[in-house]
Amino acid sequence: MSWGGLPLGGVLGGASGTAFGAPTTLWIGTVGMTLSFLPAFLSPLRTMTAPTPHDEGGRDDGPADDRQLSEAR
């Protein structure tokens, strides 16, 4: 979690509560929270895939099995 935004949110919430009133501020917060997924949803992040070891130029040793572990001892 990012705790750095809490003071800013408190100040903005207090200022909008003073300027617009509590019910309007709660509606603004509700709409903001409802739409907060849109930046990530509309970004290329949604269609990205994890790179495979072959894409990075590294070796693909695969998962270690019991035989490899007993040979290492």
Give me some keywords for this one.
73 residues, mainly alpha, 4 helices
Tell me what the structure shows.
By secondary structure, the chain is mainly alpha-helical. Helices cover 53% and strands 0% of the residues. The protein has four helices and no strands. It has helices at 6-20, 22-34, 38-41, 66-72. Helix 1 packs across helix 2. It is elongated, with a radius of gyration of 24 Å. The chain starts with 5 loop residues before the first helix and ends with a helix.
Helical fraction: 40-55%
Q: What about the largest sheet?
A: none
- Gyration radius over CA: 24 Å
Q: Which stretches are poorly predicted, pLDDT < 50 over at least 5 residues?
A: none
What distance lies between the first and last C-alpha atoms, to the nearest angstrom? 41 Å
3D shape:
elongated
Strand content: under 5%
Order of helices and strands: HHHH
Number of helices: 4
Structural class: mainly alpha
Summed over residues and divided by their number, the pLDDT gives a mean of 81
Strands, total number = 0
